[in-house]
Amino acid sequence: PKSKEAKRRLTFFVNSLFMDIPNSPNMQDMMSWNVMTPFYSEDVTYNKSDLMKTEKTLGVSVLLYLQTLYKADWQHFLERNKIKDETQIWSKKHVDEVRRWASLRAQTLSRTVSGMMLNEKALRLLARLEGHDSETIDDLMCEKFGYVVACQVYGNMKKNQDGKADDIENLMHRFPHMRVAYIDNVRINRQGESYFYSVLVKSDRAGGITEIYRVRLPGNPVIGEGKPENQNHAIIFTRGEYLQTIDMNQEAYFEEALKMRNLLEEFGGGEGALPTTILGFREHIFTGSVSSLANYMALQETSFVTLGQRVLNKPLCSRLHYGHPDVFDKLFFMTRGGVSKSSKGINLSEDIFAGYNNVVRGGAVKFKEYVQVGKGRDVGGQQIYKFEAKLSQGNAEQSLSRDVYRVAQRLDFFRLFSMYFGGIGHYCGNVLTILTVYVVCYLMLGLALFDCEKIGDRKITPSGTLQMLLGGMGLMNTIPLFATLGVERGWWSSFHEICQVFITGGPLHFMFHIQTKAFYFAQTILVGGAKYRATGRGFVTQHSPFAENFRFFASSHIYLGMELSAALLLMGVYTGAGQYFGRTWSLWLACVSFLAAPFWFNPLTFEWQVVRNDYANWTGWMRGQGGGALKSWEVWWTEENSFYIGLGKASKLFFTCKAVLYLFIGWGILRSDLFESDPVVNKPWVPVRVVLVTFM
C-alpha cells in the first residue's frame, strides 16, 4: 500500500504474529470483556460550523487543515463518494459523510467509538470462520463483548437540546450494541430537592432511544474528581469477566481486535504466585504528524509507553496502572474499591491509584507488546503545558498520599527503588535538576562578586572542554529511542527523526518542560492547590497572543529565565576566572529555553503585523485597571500570588531564604567598585535599589 499508516499497521501486525502469543480458544470458550469510555462534553462529531470556522491570523479552517494534512485520504474520499466538485460536499447527500470523515481524523468520541466497535466486527468474523450461524453469532456478541460510554451529562445535553446529544444518539443507532450511561437529575419539588439516578440507555433499532436500567442513588455521585466519579457510577452496567478502560482520545484497529481473545488468555496463566489482575499493552500516538510539538509528545510517549513500561515490567517488576487502555480483572477490582479513586485533589491522577491498590491487595501486572491501540496527545504549546502541569501536581499529591506510604512500607528495598524510578522519582529528579541550575548559577555569581574564584594563587577554573564533553553525554539518552525507532521504522528513518527533533528546536521544548514539571511539583508540595486542567483536544490553527502566553508562562518560566539571565550577565561582568562560555553555556541554554520556547513554537510569532498587534495588546493589558485577570496585569499578578497568604511556616521559610539571597547579591554588588564614584553609595536604600534594578 502507498499509505504510510497502512504500512505501519501491517508491519506491526505481521511482526506481532512471531511474538509469544497464547493460543486462541474457540469463540464459545473465550473470556468475555466489556469496554468503558468516560466522556464529559468533548467533541462527539464535528459539525459544519466546527469545520469551517476560520481563525483571523492564520485564515485556516479545521477542514482545510485536515485536507492538507491527509491529502491522499481526502482524494480517496472524494473518489469513493463520486464527488467531482468540492462545492457539493455540504449537500444533504454528503454532509454526514464529510462530518464523519473529519471526525475520524481528530480526537473525537466518534473516532473512539468507531474503533472500539471494531472489536465486535472482528469477533463476528472469527465466529463466522468457526462456522457459527447468524443467530448464534448474535448471542455470542451479547455474551462476549459489550461497550459502555459513560456520558455523564448526556441527560443535561438532552434537556438543553445540545447538538452533541443528537450526535451521541446517532452513534448508538450506528452501533446497536453500544450503551450509554449517564446521571439523571430529577427535581421533585419547588424547594430544589432532587433525586439522582444512574441510567443506561440504548438504541431501539427503530430510530429511538430506550431505557434499560435506572438505579436511584443516595445523592449526587459527583463529589470528587469528575472523571473517576464518571467511571465509578457506570461500572455497574458493564458485563463480562474483564473490563477495559479506554479514554476518548483513543482508537482501536481491526487487525489488533483479532488478537483480543488471545490477549485475554494472559489472565489465565500467572507467571508467579500472584494472580494477574491488570494487563497492559502498547499504544501508538497517532497525532505525531500534526505539528512539531505533537511529534515531540509522540516520541516522549513512545519512550514511556513502550521503552519505559517494558523495563518496568521486566526486570523491575514494578509496572503499575498509568491509565487507559489497560484491561482489569473486573471481579478483583469490584470487590476492592473499583478501578479509580476520586477524592478531590489527592486523587487528581486517578489511574495510578488503581495500581497502588492492586499492589497492596496482592495483584500482579503484565505488559504485552503484541497488541496495540491508537492514542491522541496534546498538539499545542498551551495544551501540553497544562497536561504536564496536571501530571506534576498529580505526582506531588501522590507523594503525600497514604497509598504511596502503604506501598512503600510493603515493598522490598530494590522494588522500592524501582517504584520510585517509575513514578514520583522522575518529578523529584526534575526538581533537583532545576534546583541545581539555580544553585550553580548563584554560586558562581557569588564567587565572582566576592572575589573568591581562587584558592591562593590558583583560580577555580573548570575545564570548559571537559564540561562540554560531559554535557554532550546527555545525548546518549537518545540512544534507546534511536534503537527502537530503527528496529520499527528503519535506521535511516530513525536517524532522520532524531535529526529533525534537534533541528526544529526539540531540546528547547524538553528543557522547558523540565521546569514545568519542577515548578508545579514543588508548588503543590509547598502550597497545594492541585486541580484538574482541561487541555482540550482540538487542532491548534491559531496564533496565541503574547499577553496570553505571558499569563500562561510568566510565573513558571519567564520570571526564572530573566532572573538567571541577569545573574549570568552579572557574573560575566565580575568574573576573573576565564572560560566564561565553557562554564555557562548549559545555563544559558536553560535560560533561552525558558524564555524563547513559548514563542518559538507559536504560529506566526515573527510576523511583523502580528508582533505589532501583540505588543499593543500586551501594553494595554499591562496598563489595565480592574476587570479581571484577562484585562489587567495588576489583577492577574494579585491572583497569581494569592497563595502566599495561606502558606505554612516551612513554606514561608523557603521563600524567605530566596529573598535573602537577593540581598546577599545586592551586598556583593554594593561592595564592588561599581559605585566608587557615587556620592550616595553608603545610603541604606542603595542595596535595595540595586537588587530591584538587577532582578526586575
UniProtKB/TrEMBL annotation:
<dbReference type="GO" id="GO:0000148">
    <property type="term" value="C:1,3-beta-D-glucan synthase complex"/>
</dbReference>
<dbReference type="GO" id="GO:0003843">
    <property type="term" value="F:1,3-beta-D-glucan synthase activity"/>
</dbReference>
<dbReference type="Pfam" id="PF02364">
    <property type="entry name" value="Glucan_synthase"/>
</dbReference>
<dbReference type="GO" id="GO:0006075">
    <property type="term" value="P:(1-&gt;3)-beta-D-glucan biosynthetic process"/>
</dbReference>
<protein>
    <recommendedName>
        <fullName>Glycosyl transferase 48 domain-containing protein</fullName>
    </recommendedName>
</protein>
<keyword id="KW-1133">Transmembrane helix</keyword>
<keyword id="KW-0812">Transmembrane</keyword>
<feature type="transmembrane region" description="Helical">
    <location>
        <begin position="584"/>
        <end position="601"/>
    </location>
</feature>
<feature type="transmembrane region" description="Helical">
    <location>
        <begin position="464"/>
        <end position="483"/>
    </location>
</feature>
<keyword id="KW-0472">Membrane</keyword>
<dbReference type="InterPro" id="IPR003440">
    <property type="entry name" value="Glyco_trans_48_dom"/>
</dbReference>
<feature type="domain" description="Glycosyl transferase 48">
    <location>
        <begin position="92"/>
        <end position="642"/>
    </location>
</feature>
<feature type="transmembrane region" description="Helical">
    <location>
        <begin position="431"/>
        <end position="452"/>
    </location>
</feature>
<dbReference type="GO" id="GO:0005886">
    <property type="term" value="C:plasma membrane"/>
</dbReference>
<feature type="domain" description="Glycosyl transferase 48">
    <location>
        <begin position="1"/>
        <end position="88"/>
    </location>
</feature>
<feature type="transmembrane region" description="Helical">
    <location>
        <begin position="558"/>
        <end position="577"/>
    </location>
</feature>
<feature type="transmembrane region" description="Helical">
    <location>
        <begin position="653"/>
        <end position="670"/>
    </location>
</feature>
